Amino acid sequence: MTSSSSSSTIVLVTGGSGLVGQAIKSYITKTNNSDDNNNNNNNNETWIFLSSKDGDLRDRQQTDAIFNKYQPTHVIHLAAKVGGLFANMKQKVEFYRENTLINDNIMENCRIHKVTKLVSMLSTCIFPDKTTYPIDETMLHDGPPHPSNEGYAYAKRLIDTMNRAYAEEYGCNFTSIIPTNIYGPHDNFSIENGHVIPGLIHKCYIAKKENTPFTIWGSGEPLRQFIYSLDLAELAVWVMREYHSPDPITLSVDESAEVSIKDVAYAVAKAMKFTGEVIFDTTKADGQFRKTACNKKLRSFRPDYKFTSMEEGVQEAVDWFIANYETARK
Ligand code: NAP
Ligand code: GDP
After folding, report:
1. Which residues form the NAD-dependent epimerase/dehydratase domain (predicted)?
2. Model-level pTM?
Protein backbone atom coordinates (compact mmCIF):
# COMPACT_ATOMS: atom_id res chain seq x y z
CA MET A 1 0.00 0.00 0.00
CA THR A 2 1.47 3.35 -0.88
CA SER A 3 1.56 6.05 1.76
CA SER A 4 -1.04 8.05 -0.12
CA SER A 5 -3.81 5.46 -0.19
CA SER A 6 -5.28 6.06 3.27
CA SER A 7 -8.72 7.66 3.32
CA SER A 8 -7.45 10.94 4.78
CA THR A 9 -4.85 11.86 2.20
CA ILE A 10 -4.80 15.61 1.63
CA VAL A 11 -2.30 16.73 -1.00
CA LEU A 12 -1.35 20.39 -0.91
CA VAL A 13 0.31 21.66 -4.09
CA THR A 14 2.15 24.94 -3.55
CA GLY A 15 2.59 26.93 -6.76
CA GLY A 16 -0.53 25.22 -8.08
CA SER A 17 -1.27 28.06 -10.51
CA GLY A 18 2.06 27.79 -12.35
CA LEU A 19 3.37 25.73 -15.26
CA VAL A 20 3.92 22.52 -13.30
CA GLY A 21 1.03 23.06 -10.87
CA GLN A 22 -1.49 23.42 -13.69
CA ALA A 23 -0.06 20.33 -15.39
CA ILE A 24 -0.49 18.30 -12.19
CA LYS A 25 -4.03 19.62 -11.91
CA SER A 26 -4.77 18.48 -15.49
CA TYR A 27 -3.25 15.08 -14.81
CA ILE A 28 -5.22 14.57 -11.60
CA THR A 29 -8.44 15.77 -13.23
CA LYS A 30 -7.91 13.42 -16.19
CA THR A 31 -6.99 10.35 -14.16
CA ASN A 32 -9.20 10.76 -11.12
CA ASN A 33 -12.45 12.27 -12.36
CA SER A 34 -11.97 15.06 -9.88
CA ASP A 35 -14.62 17.76 -9.62
CA ASP A 36 -14.01 21.47 -10.11
CA ASN A 37 -13.29 21.99 -6.42
CA ASN A 38 -10.14 19.88 -6.73
CA ASN A 39 -11.63 17.09 -4.63
CA ASN A 40 -11.50 13.58 -5.89
CA ASN A 41 -12.31 10.18 -4.53
CA ASN A 42 -10.20 7.81 -6.62
CA ASN A 43 -7.06 7.00 -4.60
CA ASN A 44 -8.84 8.63 -1.64
CA GLU A 45 -6.90 11.79 -2.20
CA THR A 46 -8.10 15.36 -1.87
CA TRP A 47 -6.00 17.76 -3.91
CA ILE A 48 -5.58 21.45 -3.09
CA PHE A 49 -3.85 23.71 -5.60
CA LEU A 50 -2.56 26.97 -4.10
CA SER A 51 -1.67 30.20 -5.84
CA SER A 52 0.06 33.22 -4.31
CA LYS A 53 -3.44 34.67 -3.79
CA ASP A 54 -3.93 32.05 -1.04
CA GLY A 55 -0.99 33.48 0.86
CA ASP A 56 2.58 34.67 0.45
CA LEU A 57 4.78 31.70 1.30
CA ARG A 58 7.74 33.99 1.97
CA ASP A 59 5.82 35.02 5.08
CA ARG A 60 5.93 32.60 8.00
CA GLN A 61 2.57 33.57 9.49
CA GLN A 62 0.74 33.30 6.17
CA THR A 63 2.35 29.91 5.57
CA ASP A 64 1.36 28.72 9.07
CA ALA A 65 -2.24 29.82 8.37
CA ILE A 66 -2.35 27.75 5.16
CA PHE A 67 -1.10 24.62 6.94
CA ASN A 68 -3.51 25.16 9.84
CA LYS A 69 -6.39 25.57 7.38
CA TYR A 70 -5.71 22.55 5.14
CA GLN A 71 -3.83 20.16 7.48
CA PRO A 72 -2.13 18.43 4.54
CA THR A 73 -0.77 14.90 4.81
CA HIS A 74 1.27 15.29 1.59
CA VAL A 75 2.85 18.36 0.02
CA ILE A 76 4.13 18.82 -3.52
CA HIS A 77 6.14 22.00 -3.18
CA LEU A 78 6.42 23.87 -6.48
CA ALA A 79 6.12 27.51 -5.39
CA ALA A 80 9.28 29.46 -6.12
CA LYS A 81 10.64 32.58 -7.69
CA VAL A 82 11.27 31.11 -11.14
CA GLY A 83 12.84 32.67 -14.22
CA GLY A 84 15.05 32.09 -17.23
CA LEU A 85 18.75 32.82 -17.66
CA PHE A 86 18.32 36.58 -18.08
CA ALA A 87 16.10 37.07 -14.99
CA ASN A 88 18.51 34.96 -12.92
CA MET A 89 21.48 37.08 -14.02
CA LYS A 90 19.73 40.32 -13.00
CA GLN A 91 18.21 39.34 -9.64
CA LYS A 92 20.52 36.96 -7.81
CA VAL A 93 19.65 38.42 -4.39
CA GLU A 94 15.88 38.00 -4.87
CA PHE A 95 16.26 34.50 -6.35
CA TYR A 96 18.29 33.47 -3.30
CA ARG A 97 16.27 35.21 -0.59
CA GLU A 98 12.71 34.55 -1.79
CA ASN A 99 13.35 30.89 -2.47
CA THR A 100 15.18 30.37 0.81
CA LEU A 101 12.34 31.97 2.78
CA ILE A 102 9.64 29.98 0.95
CA ASN A 103 11.49 26.68 1.32
CA ASP A 104 12.22 27.22 5.01
CA ASN A 105 8.58 28.06 5.77
CA ILE A 106 7.32 25.00 3.88
CA MET A 107 9.80 22.51 5.34
CA GLU A 108 9.36 23.68 8.91
CA ASN A 109 5.56 23.57 8.58
CA CYS A 110 5.78 20.06 7.11
CA ARG A 111 7.81 18.98 10.15
CA ILE A 112 5.44 20.62 12.64
CA HIS A 113 2.33 19.22 10.95
CA LYS A 114 3.88 15.76 10.61
CA VAL A 115 3.37 15.73 6.86
CA THR A 116 3.83 12.13 5.65
CA LYS A 117 5.59 13.12 2.46
CA LEU A 118 7.07 16.35 1.09
CA VAL A 119 8.27 16.48 -2.53
CA SER A 120 10.21 19.63 -3.51
CA MET A 121 11.67 20.75 -6.80
CA LEU A 122 15.35 21.19 -7.59
CA SER A 123 16.62 21.68 -11.17
CA THR A 124 19.44 20.45 -13.40
CA CYS A 125 20.57 24.10 -13.68
CA ILE A 126 21.79 24.09 -10.05
CA PHE A 127 24.51 21.48 -10.64
CA PRO A 128 28.22 22.33 -10.70
CA ASP A 129 29.28 24.34 -13.72
CA LYS A 130 32.56 22.48 -14.12
CA THR A 131 31.68 18.82 -14.06
CA THR A 132 31.72 15.60 -16.03
CA TYR A 133 28.73 14.47 -18.09
CA PRO A 134 26.17 13.12 -17.72
CA ILE A 135 25.36 14.60 -14.32
CA ASP A 136 23.59 12.37 -11.82
CA GLU A 137 21.89 12.83 -8.47
CA THR A 138 25.12 12.25 -6.47
CA MET A 139 26.98 15.21 -8.03
CA LEU A 140 24.81 18.09 -6.83
CA HIS A 141 27.24 19.57 -4.29
CA ASP A 142 30.50 18.78 -6.09
CA GLY A 143 31.42 22.36 -7.07
CA PRO A 144 30.04 25.89 -7.58
CA PRO A 145 27.07 26.37 -9.93
CA HIS A 146 27.26 28.45 -13.12
CA PRO A 147 27.70 32.12 -12.03
CA SER A 148 24.62 33.21 -14.00
CA ASN A 149 22.19 31.63 -11.52
CA GLU A 150 24.10 31.13 -8.30
CA GLY A 151 21.44 32.86 -6.14
CA TYR A 152 18.73 30.42 -7.29
CA ALA A 153 21.12 27.46 -7.32
CA TYR A 154 22.30 27.78 -3.72
CA ALA A 155 18.74 28.31 -2.43
CA LYS A 156 17.65 25.15 -4.27
CA ARG A 157 20.69 23.09 -3.23
CA LEU A 158 19.82 23.76 0.43
CA ILE A 159 16.56 21.85 -0.07
CA ASP A 160 18.57 18.68 -0.60
CA THR A 161 20.81 19.42 2.39
CA MET A 162 17.79 20.05 4.61
CA ASN A 163 15.85 16.99 3.35
CA ARG A 164 18.67 14.87 4.75
CA ALA A 165 18.91 16.94 7.95
CA TYR A 166 15.14 16.68 8.60
CA ALA A 167 15.29 12.90 8.01
CA GLU A 168 18.26 12.47 10.32
CA GLU A 169 17.05 14.68 13.17
CA TYR A 170 13.26 14.33 12.97
CA GLY A 171 12.65 11.20 10.83
CA CYS A 172 10.84 13.27 8.16
CA ASN A 173 10.07 11.75 4.75
CA PHE A 174 11.09 14.70 2.56
CA THR A 175 12.47 14.22 -0.92
CA SER A 176 13.16 16.17 -4.10
CA ILE A 177 12.82 15.97 -7.86
CA ILE A 178 15.44 17.22 -10.31
CA PRO A 179 13.70 18.18 -13.56
CA THR A 180 15.44 19.46 -16.66
CA ASN A 181 14.06 22.54 -18.48
CA ILE A 182 10.25 22.34 -18.44
CA TYR A 183 7.75 23.81 -20.92
CA GLY A 184 4.05 23.55 -21.75
CA PRO A 185 0.65 25.24 -21.34
CA HIS A 186 0.36 27.87 -18.55
CA ASP A 187 4.08 28.71 -18.78
CA ASN A 188 5.41 32.18 -18.09
CA PHE A 189 5.69 33.61 -21.62
CA SER A 190 7.50 36.79 -20.53
CA ILE A 191 10.21 37.58 -23.07
CA GLU A 192 12.37 39.38 -20.50
CA ASN A 193 12.03 36.98 -17.56
CA GLY A 194 10.81 33.62 -18.85
CA HIS A 195 12.63 30.47 -19.94
CA VAL A 196 13.77 29.85 -23.47
CA ILE A 197 10.80 27.92 -24.97
CA PRO A 198 8.03 30.24 -23.74
CA GLY A 199 10.23 33.25 -24.61
CA LEU A 200 10.79 31.95 -28.13
CA ILE A 201 7.08 31.14 -28.58
CA HIS A 202 6.15 34.70 -27.62
CA LYS A 203 8.86 36.24 -29.83
CA CYS A 204 7.91 34.06 -32.81
CA TYR A 205 4.21 34.97 -32.36
CA ILE A 206 5.12 38.67 -32.55
CA ALA A 207 7.51 38.14 -35.49
CA LYS A 208 4.77 36.37 -37.45
CA LYS A 209 2.13 38.97 -36.59
CA GLU A 210 4.35 41.97 -37.36
CA ASN A 211 6.30 40.41 -40.24
CA THR A 212 9.63 41.04 -38.48
CA PRO A 213 12.62 38.69 -37.92
CA PHE A 214 12.45 36.02 -35.22
CA THR A 215 15.42 36.75 -32.92
CA ILE A 216 17.08 34.01 -30.88
CA TRP A 217 19.31 35.19 -28.05
CA GLY A 218 22.87 33.86 -27.93
CA SER A 219 24.58 31.58 -30.42
CA GLY A 220 21.93 28.85 -30.46
CA GLU A 221 24.71 26.33 -29.74
CA PRO A 222 24.00 25.46 -26.05
CA LEU A 223 22.40 22.07 -25.43
CA ARG A 224 19.37 21.33 -23.27
CA GLN A 225 17.03 18.49 -22.37
CA PHE A 226 13.39 19.59 -22.25
CA ILE A 227 10.55 17.81 -20.46
CA TYR A 228 6.92 18.49 -21.36
CA SER A 229 5.01 19.72 -18.28
CA LEU A 230 2.30 17.03 -18.55
CA ASP A 231 4.97 14.28 -18.51
CA LEU A 232 6.64 15.89 -15.51
CA ALA A 233 3.27 16.12 -13.77
CA GLU A 234 2.60 12.40 -14.17
CA LEU A 235 6.09 11.52 -12.92
CA ALA A 236 5.92 13.97 -10.00
CA VAL A 237 2.67 12.37 -8.80
CA TRP A 238 4.32 8.96 -9.15
CA VAL A 239 7.22 10.21 -6.98
CA MET A 240 4.77 11.38 -4.34
CA ARG A 241 2.94 8.06 -4.31
CA GLU A 242 5.70 5.54 -4.94
CA TYR A 243 9.24 6.90 -4.46
CA HIS A 244 10.33 6.86 -0.83
CA SER A 245 13.88 8.07 -0.33
CA PRO A 246 15.27 11.45 0.77
CA ASP A 247 17.78 11.22 -2.09
CA PRO A 248 16.73 13.26 -5.13
CA ILE A 249 15.55 11.68 -8.37
CA THR A 250 16.19 13.23 -11.79
CA LEU A 251 13.11 13.42 -14.01
CA SER A 252 14.57 13.85 -17.45
CA VAL A 253 14.17 12.67 -21.00
CA ASP A 254 16.93 10.37 -22.24
CA GLU A 255 20.35 11.79 -23.10
CA SER A 256 19.64 11.03 -26.75
CA ALA A 257 16.81 13.60 -26.63
CA GLU A 258 19.19 16.49 -25.88
CA VAL A 259 18.81 19.30 -28.45
CA SER A 260 20.49 22.61 -29.25
CA ILE A 261 18.75 25.95 -28.69
CA LYS A 262 18.86 26.31 -32.48
CA ASP A 263 16.87 23.04 -32.86
CA VAL A 264 14.32 24.35 -30.38
CA ALA A 265 14.00 27.68 -32.18
CA TYR A 266 13.30 25.93 -35.49
CA ALA A 267 10.79 23.62 -33.77
CA VAL A 268 8.97 26.72 -32.45
CA ALA A 269 9.05 28.38 -35.90
CA LYS A 270 7.63 25.22 -37.48
CA ALA A 271 4.84 24.87 -34.91
CA MET A 272 3.99 28.57 -35.34
CA LYS A 273 4.11 28.19 -39.17
CA PHE A 274 6.59 31.06 -39.26
CA THR A 275 8.47 31.31 -42.56
CA GLY A 276 10.29 34.64 -42.09
CA GLU A 277 13.90 35.43 -41.21
CA VAL A 278 15.56 33.83 -38.14
CA ILE A 279 18.39 35.82 -36.46
CA PHE A 280 20.86 34.84 -33.72
CA ASP A 281 21.79 37.78 -31.47
CA THR A 282 25.25 36.79 -30.24
CA THR A 283 25.56 39.90 -28.07
CA LYS A 284 23.24 38.08 -25.63
CA ALA A 285 24.50 35.48 -23.15
CA ASP A 286 24.55 31.74 -23.87
CA GLY A 287 24.60 30.74 -20.18
CA GLN A 288 25.74 27.25 -19.27
CA PHE A 289 26.75 25.34 -22.41
CA ARG A 290 25.21 22.06 -21.36
CA LYS A 291 23.88 20.29 -18.28
CA THR A 292 23.23 16.84 -19.72
CA ALA A 293 21.45 14.78 -17.09
CA CYS A 294 21.43 11.02 -16.65
CA ASN A 295 18.00 9.47 -16.06
CA LYS A 296 19.28 6.01 -15.11
CA LYS A 297 17.64 6.14 -11.68
CA LEU A 298 14.24 7.03 -13.17
CA ARG A 299 14.68 4.34 -15.84
CA SER A 300 15.40 1.76 -13.10
CA PHE A 301 11.85 2.34 -11.82
CA ARG A 302 10.10 3.34 -15.04
CA PRO A 303 11.99 1.62 -17.89
CA ASP A 304 9.14 1.93 -20.38
CA TYR A 305 7.95 5.47 -19.65
CA LYS A 306 7.35 7.16 -22.98
CA PHE A 307 8.04 10.90 -23.04
CA THR A 308 6.13 13.29 -25.29
CA SER A 309 8.30 14.16 -28.30
CA MET A 310 9.57 17.73 -28.48
CA GLU A 311 7.75 18.26 -31.76
CA GLU A 312 4.42 17.26 -30.21
CA GLY A 313 5.02 19.13 -26.95
CA VAL A 314 6.11 22.35 -28.65
CA GLN A 315 3.05 22.19 -30.91
CA GLU A 316 0.80 21.82 -27.82
CA ALA A 317 2.51 24.76 -26.09
CA VAL A 318 2.28 26.97 -29.21
CA ASP A 319 -1.40 26.09 -29.73
CA TRP A 320 -2.12 26.83 -26.07
CA PHE A 321 -0.36 30.21 -26.27
CA ILE A 322 -2.25 31.24 -29.39
CA ALA A 323 -5.60 30.13 -27.92
CA ASN A 324 -4.91 31.88 -24.59
CA TYR A 325 -2.98 34.90 -25.81
CA GLU A 326 -5.10 37.46 -23.93
CA THR A 327 -4.80 35.81 -20.50
CA ALA A 328 -1.43 34.01 -20.69
CA ARG A 329 1.33 35.21 -18.35
CA LYS A 330 3.58 37.39 -20.46
P1 NAP B 1 5.87 29.07 -12.37
O2 NAP B 1 5.06 28.69 -13.54
O3 NAP B 1 6.62 30.36 -12.41
O4 NAP B 1 4.93 29.05 -11.09
C5 NAP B 1 5.42 29.49 -9.85
C6 NAP B 1 4.34 29.25 -8.84
O7 NAP B 1 4.83 29.65 -7.56
C8 NAP B 1 3.07 30.04 -9.11
O9 NAP B 1 1.96 29.24 -8.77
C10 NAP B 1 3.18 31.21 -8.15
O11 NAP B 1 1.93 31.73 -7.75
C12 NAP B 1 3.87 30.54 -6.98
N13 NAP B 1 4.59 31.48 -6.15
C14 NAP B 1 5.68 32.24 -6.47
N15 NAP B 1 6.03 33.01 -5.44
C16 NAP B 1 5.17 32.73 -4.42
C17 NAP B 1 5.03 33.21 -3.11
N18 NAP B 1 5.86 34.13 -2.60
N19 NAP B 1 4.00 32.72 -2.36
C20 NAP B 1 3.17 31.80 -2.85
N21 NAP B 1 3.26 31.28 -4.09
C22 NAP B 1 4.25 31.76 -4.87
O23 NAP B 1 6.95 27.93 -12.01
P24 NAP B 1 7.09 26.46 -12.61
O25 NAP B 1 7.84 26.59 -13.87
O26 NAP B 1 5.77 25.77 -12.55
O27 NAP B 1 8.09 25.82 -11.55
C28 NAP B 1 7.64 24.92 -10.55
C29 NAP B 1 8.87 24.43 -9.78
O30 NAP B 1 9.76 23.74 -10.66
C31 NAP B 1 9.70 25.54 -9.14
O32 NAP B 1 10.11 25.14 -7.86
C33 NAP B 1 10.89 25.69 -10.07
O34 NAP B 1 12.01 26.18 -9.39
C35 NAP B 1 11.07 24.27 -10.56
N36 NAP B 1 11.72 24.15 -11.88
C37 NAP B 1 11.19 24.79 -12.98
C38 NAP B 1 11.80 24.63 -14.21
C39 NAP B 1 11.26 25.28 -15.46
O40 NAP B 1 11.88 25.12 -16.54
N41 NAP B 1 10.14 25.99 -15.42
C42 NAP B 1 12.93 23.80 -14.33
C43 NAP B 1 13.42 23.16 -13.20
C44 NAP B 1 12.80 23.33 -11.98
P45 NAP B 1 1.16 32.88 -8.62
O46 NAP B 1 1.07 32.34 -10.03
O47 NAP B 1 -0.15 33.00 -7.98
O48 NAP B 1 2.02 34.08 -8.53
P1 GDP C 1 18.73 27.85 -18.63
O2 GDP C 1 18.44 26.59 -19.37
O3 GDP C 1 18.68 27.68 -17.15
O4 GDP C 1 20.00 28.48 -19.08
O5 GDP C 1 17.57 28.90 -18.91
P6 GDP C 1 16.70 29.33 -20.17
O7 GDP C 1 15.49 28.52 -20.28
O8 GDP C 1 16.51 30.80 -19.97
O9 GDP C 1 17.57 29.04 -21.48
C10 GDP C 1 18.68 29.84 -21.76
C11 GDP C 1 19.32 29.46 -23.09
O12 GDP C 1 18.45 29.76 -24.18
C13 GDP C 1 20.58 30.29 -23.31
O14 GDP C 1 21.50 29.58 -24.12
C15 GDP C 1 20.02 31.51 -24.07
O16 GDP C 1 21.03 32.18 -24.80
C17 GDP C 1 19.01 30.81 -24.98
N18 GDP C 1 17.92 31.68 -25.46
C19 GDP C 1 17.69 32.01 -26.76
N20 GDP C 1 16.63 32.81 -26.87
C21 GDP C 1 16.15 32.98 -25.61
C22 GDP C 1 15.03 33.70 -25.08
O23 GDP C 1 14.26 34.35 -25.79
N24 GDP C 1 14.83 33.61 -23.74
C25 GDP C 1 15.65 32.90 -22.92
N26 GDP C 1 15.38 32.85 -21.62
N27 GDP C 1 16.73 32.24 -23.39
C28 GDP C 1 16.97 32.27 -24.71
Report:
1. 11-245
2. 0.94
